[in-house]
Write a structure and sequence with these properties.
It comes from Moelleriella libera RCEF 2490. This protein is mostly helical. It has a domain of about 180 residues. Helices cover about 65% and strands about 0% of the residues. The protein contains eleven helices and no strands. It is elongated, with a radius of gyration of 22 Å. The chain starts with a helix and ends with a helix.
Length: about 280
């Protein structure tokens, strides 16, 4: 792997690395390549794994001369845990139907930590990951603000006089539209990666429709839509944890690697087929 990474360095890599005595040489460049994080080193050529573990659906190369960890699993775990707790509330698990417990998670983990992970995705050159993680970090922070009494956005004496169903429906509809855009960017990645955003998209759709049903006074439909959205939220949470595990696992910490199932039409699958055909020849 070290020799392969050394071969992947740009032509002037040797000029950028110096030995302690001030002389230039290819050996220090190779040593620098060996210091790359093992997950990113494996993705410096060809198409990224698109496993969700790297939170990137297509062609991507990380910066060669920076030692950066993969921030995607952190952001995915922050998203997954916060979504899991809110989905438990939406499905009225054990009779709990008030979302206040989500507020500290939405501010601290799903919000701040996921936003920071998104910022580090920018440093890694991952546009999709930066957009997704930063945006959903912003979603959780804004959702927590909605539920914070001091802001009084949804209170009975607030700006909507307690009639918040339609405004919340608009809020969730906007996130449904945004998530749909991300779903379109995962169609050439993997089954698990696509399923994560697809189930999340459905969760936003059903929860938005729940608010519109509340506004129309149809309580029965509203409860059914809320629980359905909660179910899809559960699926999205577990898929996010699954993708995070795919990004965390490697030969140094696990005996297995969870499969991510590349779509047959994906660039990665096509690349693997070409390698297989060449090997057979």
């Amino acid at each position: 792997m070290a020799s392969e990474n050394a071969n992947m360095l740009p032509p002037n890599a040797a000029l950028m690395e110096k030995e302690p005595n001030g002389t230039n040489g290819a050996a220090p460049a190779a040593a620098h390549a060996r210091r790359h994080h093992h997950d990113y080193a494996a993705m410096t050529s060809g198409y990224a794994a698109a496993s969700g573990g790297s939170l990137n659906p297509g062609l991507w190369k990380p910066y060669e001369h920076r030692r950066l960890a993969n921030p995607a699993p952190l952001g995915l775990c922050a998203f997954a845990l916060t979504t899991f707790v809110l989905s438990a509330v939406n499905t009225h698990t054990r009779g709990v139907d008030k979302p206040n417990i989500v507020v500290p998670l939405a501010f601290g983990y799903g919000g701040l930590v996921q936003l920071l992970a998104g910022m580090w995705e920018m440093a890694c050159g991952n546009t999709f990951g930066a957009t997704a993680l930063s945006s959903y970090g912003g979603f959780w922070i804004s959702y927590a603000i909605l539920l914070t009494p001091n802001w009084n956005i949804t209170g009975t004496n607030g700006p909507y006089a307690g009639n918040t169903a339609s405004p919340l429906g608009f809020f969730l509809t906007g996130w449904f539209i945004f998530t749909t855009l991300l779903v379109l960017c995962t169609l050439k990645s993997t089954v698990m990666f696509f399923s994560l955003f697809f189930t999340l998209d459905l969760a936003f759709l059903f929860l938005a429709c729940e608010q519109y049903a509340v506004d129309l006074g149809n309580t029965t439909a509203a409860v059914a839509l809320q629980k359905t959205g909660g179910v899809f939220g559960f699926l999205a949470a577990f898929l996010a944890w699954y993708c995070a595990l795919a990004g965390l696992q490697d030969s140094s910490n696990s005996f297995i690697q969870v499969p991510v199932f590349h779509f047959p039409w994906s660039d990665k699958a096509r690349e693997e087929r070409e390698k297989s055909d060449k090997a057979q020849v």
